[in-house]
């Protein structure tokens, strides 16, 4: 997920946001539903955005105000918490009160909106054409498209990565851990009583565990479903991925169930040579967040020690995979069916143009641009990204702490990004599995000693059952 640490956000919509939603989702004074469902405008543009942290909402409002000043179009900005989005969009659709534009939505959410015919693909496609598809990451465009229909305009990404202690690797003469083979070899070589070779999520019922495993599994060609929608979690490639991850967490990791907080804490304490986390950890590893500071022995003198001595691997390669791949999320803007098309198109173009730099500046560690630049300045946004101040309690550019090759790898991460179910047209199934966590349960079982093949079969049957319930 796009929230810090990739854990699902638990905060509800604030009472103020609920009041705004009730007040403004009804559209203009003429009562046409969404600020101009006839496409002719006339009322304020209603924009939902999945940002509910106060500082981020305030920063977004400032961008919206700048758009209003430049265009003359009034915008009602509605902050919606991620875990409330599905319920609110369903209610709005049933009431005929859809917003005109929605921002910050995930790939599964884009597919769900499309499946329910809530996307104005013609306007979305017109936005992308106006901006020039060639200025975007090819992978991001692919993941937000269904056949010839563009479902959303991809905006930014966060990706899952394997972080490793480059100082320890260099001292041991080890190559970067880019493949199953090299990761296992490094974990074995560096594992000791003081430092675990690897630490990764194993907690059952935890989205972070599923995200971590999907990141590892994708590079081995392990998919949740195939092109026909048949569940593949018990395939040879997936069994091998469960076996590989099981070896790491049982032979070379720390004791006990691990989650989003404990994996970070172990690496930050200097007690692990490798761990898997999202790009949201970059500012924390640099010592820019007081409640999540590195605590390794060397960090007392230099809080940024780990940032300076950490390498990153974006995509992992397994023996059964055709190409390296990594887990991540693309968040996007989309225009709803029946929206004020002209104003909506202008707004999204603004957010991906004049408003793009301040938008990604809200949290650059988790908003890696998937639009590199403009036709006139092809690397404008990608170049600017590394210079933007990141952090919570202290602000500083990531370039102050990380080597250029690290930030270049982070920026290029979206090109290798893949997701279970999305390109196979099974976004609804992917979303439905999040409530039951069959993959996280299987990972936990493997970590506890269950045979990988048995755990994979159990997970596959659970997903098949979920798929049947959606029919």
Model description:
It is a single chain. By secondary structure, the chain is of the alpha+beta class. The protein folds into two domains: 4-157 and 329-401, D-Maltodextrin-Binding Protein, domain 2, CATH 3.40.190.10; 159-326 and 417-470, Periplasmic binding protein-like II (D-Maltodextrin-Binding Protein, domain 2, 3-Layer(aba) Sandwich). 41% of the residues lie in helices and 13% in strands. The chain is built from 20 helices and 13 strands. β11 (389-390) and β12 (396-397) form a beta hairpin. α5 (121-131) packs across α14 (341-351) and α10 packs across α20 (452-470).
Q: Can you tell me the overall shape?
A: globular
- How would you classify the quaternary structure? single chain
Query: What is the CATH domain class of the largest domain?
Result: Alpha Beta
Low-confidence stretches: 1-41
Structural class by secondary-structure content: alpha+beta
CATH architecture of the largest domain: 3-Layer(aba) Sandwich
Beta strand %: 5-15%
CATH homologous superfamily identity of the largest domain: Periplasmic binding protein-like II
Number of helices: 20
What average pLDDT do the residues reach? 89
What is the β-strand count? 13
Largest sheet: 9 strands, mixed
What's the short story on this structure?
41% of the residues lie in helices and 13% in strands. With 471 residues, it is of the alpha+beta class.
How are the elements arranged and paired?
Elements: H1 15-24, E1 45-49, H2 54-71, E2 75-79, H3 85-95, E3 101-105, H4 107-115, H5 121-131, H6 138-143, E4 145-146, E5 149-150, E6 153-165, H7 166-172, H8 180-190, H9 207-218, H10 236-251, H11 260-268, E7 274-278, H12 282-285, H13 305-308, E8 310-313, E9 326-335, H14 341-351, H15 356-360, E10 368-369, H16 380-385, E11 389-390, E12 396-397, H17 404-412, E13 417-418, H18 427-433, H19 438-447, H20 452-470
Helix pairs in contact: 4-18, 5-14, 8-10, 9-19, 10-19, 10-20, 18-20, 19-20
């Amino acid at each position: 997920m796009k929230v810090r640490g990739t854990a699902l956000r638990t905060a509800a919509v604030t009472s103020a946001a609920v009041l705004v939603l009730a007040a403004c989702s009804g559209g203009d004074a003429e009562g046409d539903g969404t600020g101009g469902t006839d496409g002719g405008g006339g009322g304020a543009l209603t924009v939902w955005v999945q940002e509910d942290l106060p500082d981020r909402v305030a920063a977004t409002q400032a961008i919206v105000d700048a758009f209003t000043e430049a265009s003359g179009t009034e915008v009602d900005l509605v902050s919606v918490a991620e875990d409330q989005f599905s319920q609110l969009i369903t209610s709005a659709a049933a009431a005929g009160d859809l917003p005109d534009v929605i921002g910050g939505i995930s790939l599964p959410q884009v597919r769900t909106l499309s499946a329910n015919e809530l996307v104005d693909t013609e306007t979305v496609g017109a936005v992308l054409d106006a901006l020039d598809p060639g200025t975007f990451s090819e992978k991001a465009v692919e993941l937000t498209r269904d056949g010839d229909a563009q479902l959303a305009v991809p905006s930014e990404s966060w990706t899952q990565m394997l972080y490793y202690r480059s100082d320890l690797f260099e001292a041991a003469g080890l190559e970067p851990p880019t493949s199953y083979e090299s990761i296992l070899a490094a974990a074995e070589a560096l594992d000791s009583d003081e430092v675990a070779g690897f630490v990764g999520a194993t907690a059952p019922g935890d989205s972070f565990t599923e995200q971590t495993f999907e990141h590892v599994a994708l590079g081995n060609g392990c998919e949740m479903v195939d092109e026909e929608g048949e569940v593949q979690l018990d395939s040879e490639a997936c069994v091998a991925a469960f076996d590989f991850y099981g070896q790491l967490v049982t032979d070379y990791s720390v004791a006990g169930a691990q989650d989003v907080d404990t994996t970070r804490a172990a690496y930050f304490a200097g007690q692990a040579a490798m761990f898997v986390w999202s790009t949201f950890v970059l500012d924390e590893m640099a010592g820019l967040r007081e409640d999540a500071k590195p605590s390794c022995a060397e960090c007392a003198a230099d809080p940024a020690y780990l940032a300076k001595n950490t390498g990153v691997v974006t995509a992992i390669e397994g023996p059964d995979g055709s190409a390296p791949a990594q887990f991540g999320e693309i968040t996007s803007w989309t225009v709803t069916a029946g929206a004020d098309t002209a104003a909506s198109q202008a707004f999204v173009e603004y957010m991906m143009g004049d408003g793009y730099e301040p938008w990604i500046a809200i949290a650059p560690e988790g908003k890696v641009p998937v639009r590199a630049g403009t036709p006139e300045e092809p690397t404008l946004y990608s170049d600017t990204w590394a210079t933007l101040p990141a952090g919570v309690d202290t602000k500083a550019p990531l370039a102050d702490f990380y080597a250029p090759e690290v930030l270049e790898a982070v920026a290029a991460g979206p090109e290798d990004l893949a997701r279970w179910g999305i390109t196979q047209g099974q976004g609804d199934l992917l979303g439905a599995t999040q409530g039951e966590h069959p993959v996280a349960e299987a990972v936990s079982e493997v970590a506890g000693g269950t045979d990988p093949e048995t755990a994979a079969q159990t997970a596959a049957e659970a997903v098949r059952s979920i798929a049947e319930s959606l029919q």
